[in-house]
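Two quick folds needed for the group meeting slides. Do the first one here.
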Amino acid sequence: MAKVIMVQGTMSNAGKSLVVAGLCRIFKQDGYRVAPFKSQNMALNSFITKDGLEMGRAQVMQAEAAGIEPQSIMNPILLKPTTDKGSQVIVNGKVLGNMPAKEYFRYKTRLIPDIVKAFQRLEEQADIIVIEGAGSPAEINLKENDIVNMGLAKLVDAPVLLVGDIDRGGVFAQLLGTIMLLEEDERARIGGLIVNKFRGDKTILDPGITMLEERGGIPVTGVLPYLHIRLDDEDSLSERLSDHSKGVVNIAVIRLPRISNFTDFSAFERIPGVKVSYATRPGELADADLVILPGSKNTIGDLKWLRESGMEASIYRFAQDKPVMGICGGYQMLGELISDPEHVEEGGTIRGLGLLPVETVLQGQKTTVQVTGAFEKLEGFFSCLSGQRLEGYEIHMGDTVISGEEKSLVKLGGDREDGAIHGDVCGSYVHGIFDKGEIAYLIAKALADRKGAVLKEPEEADFKAYKESQYDLLAAEMRKYMDMDAVYAMLREAAV
């Protein structure tokens, strides 16, 4: 049986995902086979495994930290919001269907056997499983039939580390309030508290830590500093949105209301002098050198938003003399027409931006596959990518056809073609298309060359090497500021 430890938080964005990733890397460095687990994840960032199954990106990130291949059993239930009141429900990597929140709340206990089975399969592969909770265990309206926080901790008999976010303020109220709202047996599961995202002199905080331990009756296992580490978790987009600084090269990603897989653009952020910003207003494109339309969980709805917000006209003007790129749903939007005869989204037919000579028909069958290939011989701005090898994955519910004599953007394995290019506008279904080799740097350098600017190469050869350095940095900082002896003691006590 694998040893188990669980990380829960006082709220979303407290830092659970990164703490789990750091523990996974530490345990790996210490010689253990370690795996992450999250029974239920709600996110629009997803990934496709080698066997074509869909899972949340946070567990992919944690699997990378653990040095293992991502598997859908690490995230048996994935909820992808389609509206404010409903989600697409994915179980064991496959679409179960769309459900309103109330219906899913009643249904979810029927998924407990799937959670248990996935966890048991993971136990066969690991010495230690690090579990991530969701939101807060003290959300009393959701405690009934809980399958992701204390309900799961009881199910697998896991000790708990509780994380609070001091950067937002009120961390003592967060932690003590959470403890007070738990049942006695739930409080007994918490073996340690973590104060996360601390800035400043810790000696000033020490009296508060003493009071926290006295009133909560639970030791503080660590005070983690605000770590300037670039790793993607479910909440990392929120921090990016507040940064409006400019770089040598500026890439504007359209922040669609249902934006998905914003992790596609992380490869640019490691390049010195490149700034990725998320735009919601036409004026925010003024200083951009490249505009990217990202993926969307509701392509038709987000296309209507582009039209109503004035962003469509702004993107069209931008494309007259600067490059534009679309990924997945963004690629569909750049085309001439999107049809939805099966009511996959909103039904009907809608005109696209008309910047690419393609038409899309949305279909109920979801494409989920990993891909490899290479860029075609291209002209114009994107000629810098000609022949470059790529890797990635497709997640979409639609078929897109190129009209006329226009060429595809990339050639994939099995002689498949993907994407389209017309002048300096292109699009592709491939998520992760910028991650391999120098693709992101070649685009950034070409943008810098257009404006006569100089761009330094990133220190790491590729994005994977960069992420490895970030996982090691995260582990080193956590070892410095966390009582790992206490964490290992929790594991030993739980295994008795």
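Then this one, please, same format:
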Amino acid sequence: MFLREKSRTKDGKTYRYWSVVENRRVCGRRVVQRQVLYLGGLNDNQRAGWVRTIEALWGEKIKVKQLALFPDDREELPVLACETIRVQLDKIELHRPREWGACWLGLYVWNLLELDIFWGRRLPLSREGTIWLNMLKALVCYRLIDPGSEFRFHREWYVRSAMGYLLGEDVSLAQEDKPYRCVDLLLEHRDGLFEFLKGQWVNLFGAKHDVLLYSITLLKLL
């Protein structure tokens, strides 16, 4: 963990704000930064104090330690070579659970179909730095797992899923306007996508057909 500075200029004066952040490894061996604690404005002494605190808590190399967990109502514990800890099961709480397995499977199917080959060159970065390819992947998984409106996608589903971790993105990917803007980028590639998926169907399954019917609705496009 380390301190990260962000600056903001207002009325000709620059203000600096600090946060404690950590590096987190995500899908594709990418490393993204996650804010652990927002500190606000700090003077030099306060900043130095936080640096010392971080170094004291996380500066040394993490040592692996084996532990054995047992419920606290168990009268006798076995004699083990490692340290034993009693756990108060009635005090355990689950905070911010996320749906992981279905999201992982959705991305696995995406990679199996090699859709990055088709969409990678057709969805460039936006001027603001939005990775439209990741936005599309999140929308596709949403349609597969728990389909609903774009409004529900950014207000509920994205923050309850593990898509951000798997894609190496933060919550800004699901800002209110982005799902709609992404959908607008897809329509001109509808016919090309059909031809690509037809080829993948043949390559993966050896499928043969004389007549092939498909839906042109937006739901099927995603």
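Slide caption for protein two: The chain has a mean pLDDT of 82.
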